[in-house]
Amino acid sequence: MAQQEYDFSQGSIAKNIMSLAVPMTAAQLINVLYSVVDRMYLGRLPGHLALTGLGLTIPIVSIIMGFANLCGTGGAPLCSICRGRGDREEAERVMGNAFTLLLIFGGAVTTLFLIFKRPVLYLFGASDATYPYADAYMTVYLLGTVFVMIGLGMNPFINAQGFGRVGMMTVGLGAVVNIVLDPIFIFWLDLGVQGAAWATVIAQGCSAVWVLVFLTGRRAALRLRPQCMALKAARVRRIVSLGLSGFFMNLTNSLVQVVCNATLQVYGGDLYVGVMTIINSLREVFMMPVHGLSNGAQPVTGYNYGAGLYSRVRQSIRFSVAGTVGCAALFWAAAMVFPGALIRIFNGDAEVLAAGVPALRIYFCLFIPMSLQMAGQGVFVSLGRSRQAIFFSLLRKAVINAPLTVLLPVWLGTDGVFVAEAVSQLVGGLACIITMYWTVYRPFGRLPDRVEGCREDS
Description:
Layout: H1 13-42, H2 49-55, H3 58-85, H4 88-115, H5 117-123, H6 131-142, H7 145-160, H8 164-188, H9 192-215, H10 233-267, H11 270-306, H12 310-337, H13 339-344, H14 350-364, H15 367-382, H16 386-407, H17 409-412, H18 415-444
């Protein structure tokens, strides 16, 4: 593979970012199909209990993905910075340590959730009517936790090397397998919720194998080697400290979802928990292009930061912010104009539509400001600034959203849950982008480009 394909210090910043962002966005959208397709098929079963039961597992799935992001989004930016410095050996050791951590976390998470599955699902908002569906899905899904860890956690290392299309194929392969197997397992074999879980596990296994074959093969610029997998405390601390941003984003998403489900169960019952499942599915789809563009910019930003090319870092920031806002604006318009059509993708029951249309409009009314947090936080991660990235991960969900989700329904009923999300999107997004502008973008404008060395932020 030619060197210039993954040398982000050369050529157009926009072209470099889009060469990664387009396949990464496609990959992210395809990745959503793992869960969204399951919900679409289960939403066609009579009633809404199967869909609601599946929705109760979302916080657990989010926690599992959080541990994968802890290693992937923590290690991949460090790889980019090391590559910018020309330190290939350290880049490979970072990747090897991240892989070892993924295996450790995967085994621990699987064991803990299998042991405490029943109390956790009831804590997350299950009722006696919905628990059997949630239990059936979760039991099978947990068997594939290690596959999730490898596929999701190691794919950023493929993208960080500039192989965006290969990264897209990682999730594309799994999504195709999932889409094909879902109707066979759910309807033809009559396995219902368990069939959806088995289809997902097999698909994730295929993605994990694809990642390992590529990273151990000759095409990879950085290879996964056994001698690089021995953990070193200092390296692990760097990976984990930077990865905590992505981890806390998933963890706080899980926390808020738990609070939302429990609150909606009190004020609206299983119907509104089902509505939230649909809204979360749409949110995942809407967020993927925003995440894809932000994540696509991170290797480019980190590489040029490592090389000391600060003018190119600023170009990358400008392009990523403008792109994420543009993507968010398109999805905001769709949510405001076509809420009923979006809900019918999952469930067409009259009561679901009556409850879901106003809820969806409230939830997404400030989606554009929220995209500013994704852009700003992506900049912090790409520069290795873990403290800021972690702070803004916690601010929007844990500090603003979760408390408001509990308090506002006292006066607003079920609407309060969705208003809480809108308020957090506005406050969290503006706080993050303003901080990034004053602490990163403006100061970098006063620094001359340099090639030798770079400083580390922790």
